[in-house]
Amino acid sequence: LAQDNWGWLADYLAHGAQHPHIRGQHIVIFRDEGGTGKSCLFETMDSVFGPYCGPVGTGMTSSFNAGLEGLVFAHWSDPVIHGAIDRDLESALKNYSGDKKIEINHKGGAKYHVRNYGRLFIATNKDWIVPVSSTERRYTVFGGTEPFKYSDWESYDNWLRNGGVEAIREWLNGRDLSGFSISAPGPVTEQRSIME
Q1: H helices of 28-110, where?
Q2: 86 Cβ contact partners less than 8 Å away, ≥ 6 residues apart
Q3: What's the CA gap between 128 and 89, in Å, rounded?
Q4: Is there a contact between 29 and 141 (Cβ–Cβ < 8 Å)?
């Protein structure tokens, strides 16, 4: 990521760590050809945020979405698009990023509403998954960097398991967010223009 884009993403993650009770309002999409670290980011988030972070998969659009309850960070890898314009997906993403409460439906159980604190991250290799208009502030779209080498992954994983998780938590909780507004639009990127 470009330095200014990385700064925004770091602020967004730190905001969730420091203010988990405030709804995220953005959907962050990572789009590239693969092998640039999207899954690594999600695995890192799972390690750092524990039960408050997890995959949502089809729970975002299916009738049964119990996995969304309690999440501050949710991630979704390679969502399946049904048709040229998937209205169900578009509606689900709009509701999740905008609604103060979400309806939880356990299979075989009663439906109920909970506060929505979620910040959704999507990883995809597709050029387009949702219509992103020039005035739409909900979506922030990033492209990947150069593909990582296996030795890079190995070194990073070793660092993460030997104090890295704790270091990331400390860094996020100590990051200065005085210049960051959760309600302001995210950076406008070249990758975003592809989805317009």
Answers
A1: 38-49, 87-98
A2: 129, 130
A3: 12
A4: yes
**For residue 76, which of 63, 90, 91, 59 has the smallest C-alpha distance?**
59
Tokens (6 digits) for 40: 């690594």
Q: Amino acid letter at 125?
A: N
97-133 burial code (b ≥16 CB/10 A, e <16): beeeebebbeeeeeeeeeebbbbbbbbbeeeebbebe
Q: What is the mean pLDDT of each run of 10 residues along the chain (196 residues)?
A: 80 96 89 70 92 83 82 85 66 84 85 90 78 73 72 88 96 96 86 69
- List the beta bridge partners of residue 27: 120, 139
Distance (Å, whole) CA 3 – CA 32: 18
Going from the C-alpha of 112 to that of each of 19, 66, 91, 105, the distances in angstroms are 24, 10, 19, 7
Q: What is the pTM of this model?
A: 0.85
Tokens (6 digits) for 160:
């993460």
